[in-house]
Amino acid sequence: MSAETGSTDFHASSSKALLDPSLRANFRRAMDGLMAKRAAQFPDPVEWDALRTLAASIRARTLAKLPALLEALEARCTANGIRVHWAETVDDANEIVLGILRARGAARLVKGKSMVSEEMHLNDFLEKNGVESLESDLGEYIIQLDGETPSHIIMPAIHKSRQQIARLFGEKIRGAEYTEDVDALTATARRVLRRKFFEAEAGVSGVNIAVAETGTLVLVENEGNGRMSTHVPPVHIALMGIEKVVEKLEDVAPILTVLTRSATGQPVSTYLNLISGPRGPGEKDGPGEVHLVILDNGRSRIFADQEVAATLRCIRCGACMNYCPVYTRVGGHAYEAVYPGPIGSILTPQTEGLAKRHDLPHASSLCHACVEVCPVKIPITQILVTLRKESAHASPEFLVKGAGGGRDRLEDLAWWGWRMAHVSPLLYKAMSLGLRVFGPLLKGGAGPLKAWTQARTMPRRAPRTLHDLASEKGLPDA
């Protein structure tokens, strides 16, 4: 179930995920492979630190100049022939895309991978408005066939085994026979998608990096579907968040260096697309129109809050998920959000609001593994702690949406009682006596302490207090 349905109980969904042994096995196998590949790409810790320091400085410089760079990007893209559209909300972005399609009578669309389109729930929106929207990324295509959402921002179908995909293809694709051969499964998907690329009247893609200096849209991919989605249909619509811009073309290489190695363990991606405009006179391929939709969706609010602004450095590599002990055990769907894992635990509460998503900042052990592998040095655990504080008690100097929305009155009462007991000797003695008498009854009991006691060994309490022992020896009770 997605956040769109209103269900946002991470505790319940993660508990359910932990009871699925096949899900945990699929994730464990995939994560082990991804971590091994990434580690092989960064064998020298000195080089790794230098690379991520450079990438982090580029992203920080970008954010420091963000408003000016976005204006420069718009101006340069417009000069190149790219039509730029601004969307404050996902509803605005959906209407912009639909308006472009209707103006051209387009009813069939192919999509390259785009997390912004997932934020927009674009496929569902277009389907309701009579537009066929087909995912062309293999992982996205698989989960679209099964009516699911991505469980990982790089590998959407990572939660599925080969056998599950084989059954799905056999059931959903006409003429497909059951086979567990990976090459045969890929060929089946290719056969369907190849025809759709040529039938589509428009193509949608994401944007990995947008260069303000040149008005260039950079797309990274491994399957070739992104290039087919952007070059074959007559109209190309690119979707990006406001944070994806960089200042100069020379900024692209350092970011790509850490992006591909962190995401899939590759020194470079199979395809790198640099799009600077529609097809020109005499050119044999490319779309006749290119549109760039730049989405805010709460990012301006994040940008304005210095305590959490580093969230916007993210380059969507997914490395933090691969190393997170929480994500790797419960999977992406347990987060009921577009962005799962550590980055989702800091981004989603800020875009959707802490009143709705106050559970996600607590979906972390604060082990710091995500920070150690982040290629742009986002202080994820520090931001998590900030959001936890903001969830319980809103601070006027912070701008987090829905701050204070996760406040628990019962917890407030418990801490008030704890404070009063520690400032009053009489209450402290009464509390100590109560724990000695009734403490053993708490184990496995009901109420708010049930879950806490089931997962922990109850401490053995001494039959007599230190004050009692001191009094027997005639020591003063100071």
- Tell me the CATH topology of the domain at 44-145 and 200-297: Rossmann fold
Distance between the termini: 58 Å
- Architecture of the domain at 44-145 and 200-297 in CATH? 3-Layer(aba) Sandwich
Which consecutive residue ranges, at least 5 long each, have pLDDT under 50? 1-7
Strand residues, percent: 5-15%
Give the fraction of residues assigned to helices: 40-55%
Mean pLDDT reading = 91
- Oligomeric state, counting identical vs distinct chains: single chain
How would you characterize this protein structure?
This protein is α/β, with parallel strands linked by helices and about 475 residues long. Among the domains are: about 45-145 and about 200-295, Rossmann fold; about 410-470, no CATH class. About 50% of the residues lie in helices and about 10% in strands. The chain has a 6-stranded parallel sheet, sandwiched between helices. The chain has a 4-stranded mixed sheet with strand order 8-5-6-9. Helix 2 (about 20-40) crosses helix 12. The longest helix has 21 residues, at about 20-40. It is elongated. The N and C termini lie far apart (about 60 Å).
